[in-house]
Specification:
Length: about 400
């Protein structure tokens, strides 16, 4: 089957958080797609809804099989059934794990710039963020391992939140990097909480490496959060899984999720992985190609039209990280100016921790005409901003 991603879908007045904006505004911000999910997935949900009874749900065997089969075939990682725990979303899981496995005032390490909601999960639970800024050379991000060791050696640091692939910079962490992270975390008794929700959104020909797959040591110290919801645009369904090979650690995570009442499946949440992984593979591959072409279009357009902005090389996600420091030292006034004067809404990098200020994040999981509209607004807004400086 061929798939068309060029169709505009009006999401206004549909209860959509992202599109709850003014009529003239264009949100290219929140990380969900402006595409309908795969028709094959829609049919699975429609068939279940047709049944007409929506009581409490148990997890079917197919829930486990879907994750096991997908990770084996797509990511060469053999997950054992008893490693898997259901959860109602990756962020609820991260918050629950932090509450269960740390105590108030303990520190949680984050590689920055990093997804801003990680900070909410840490600070809202009375814990302290230990920022470890990534090093950036000519737009390419890497880990400063001397700084990471200094961060992890603090006895108050008990968890490292790893984003794999990394949001917002689109970095796929290599095996050697992940092994070095493991060695340091083992040395200082730090657990790795790996958010891998973007793992299936790599560029064509690029593959991510599941953190828990790299070594027995990594498996024993890791809690991995995964879900089909990001890759198949199902975020509102609230369905995810946690992979925890260590049985003692797994019990503690399971207790935390159930204490927080985020460990029970909904009717649609229980069938989401089977619908997505079982039926959506061809659609996902077509999507990855389309998003890659959108990203390439934006890189070329910006390089031609506004050389003051540099785009960070990206291997994954449908996001691009825009270096606007030559336009404005601080990104907050630029983001506000773009919204006020062009209606374009981007994510302000200042909320992403150290190394984020001066950057903007753009979401390109949209029809090409939307990307073109966004780029016209962006360039017009940047030039107007420069003229009034």
């Amino acid at each position: 089957m061929s798939y068309c991603f060029d169709q505009l879908k009006d999401r206004r007045n549909s209860g959509c958080t992202k599109w709850n904006v003014k009529e003239n505004e264009l949100p290219m911000s929140m990380a969900d797609m402006d595409f309908e999910t795969a028709p094959e997935i829609k049919k699975v949900f429609a068939d279940r809804i047709e049944h007409g009874v929506f009581g409490y749900a148990d997890l079917p065997d197919t829930w486990y099989d879907a994750y096991i089969d997908w990770w084996a075939a797509r990511h060469q990682f053999n997950i054992q059934r008893d490693w898997l725990i259901y959860s109602a979303g990756v962020i609820p899981t991260i918050s629950s794990v932090i509450r269960k496995l740390t105590t108030p005032a303990e520190k949680v390490a984050v590689l920055t710039p990093s997804y801003n909601i990680f900070y909410n999960s840490i600070l809202n639970n009375g814990r302290v963020v230990a920022e470890c800024p990534l090093c950036c050379h000519e737009g390419t991000y890497d880990i400063d391992f001397a700084l990471l060791e200094e961060t992890l050696s603090d006895p108050q640091v008990s968890i490292l939140v790893l984003c794999n692939p990394h949001n917002p910079v689109g970095k796929i962490w290599g095996r050697d990097t992940l092994l070095q992270i493991t060695a340091l975390c083992r040395k200082y008794g730090v657990l790795v909480l790996s958010d891998e929700i973007h793992c299936d959104l790599t560029d064509p020909g690029k593959e991510y490496i599941p953190y828990a797959s790299i070594s027995p040591d990594a498996a024993q110290i890791s809690i991995t959060c995964v879900s089909p919801t990001k890759a198949f645009n199902l975020a509102g369904i609230q369905s995810s899984a946690v992979i925890v090979p260590n049985p003692v650690l797994r019990h503690r995570v399971w207790r935390g999720l159930n204490t927080d009442e985020v460990g029970e499946a909904s009717i649609l949440g229980a069938i989401t992985p089977n619908a997505a992984f079982g039926q959506g593979g061809a659609w996902l591959d077509a999507l990855r190609q389309y998003v890659f072409e959108n990203k390439s279009y934006v890189r070329d357009y910006v390089a031609r039209q506004v050389k003051e902005v540099r785009i960070t090389p990206s291997e994954a996600t449908y996001l691009l990280w825009l270096d606007c420091r030559a336009v404005s030292e601080h990104s907050t006034p630029l983001a506000g100016f773009l919204k006020e004067n062009t209606g374009l809404i981007l994510i302000d990098g200042a909320g992403y921790g150290q190394g984020g200020d001066g950057f903007l994040r753009i979401n390109l999981a949209c029809p090409r005409c939307t990307a073109e509209d966004g780029m016209e607004r962006f360039v017009r807004g940047v030039w107007a901003f420069l003229e009034q400086k």
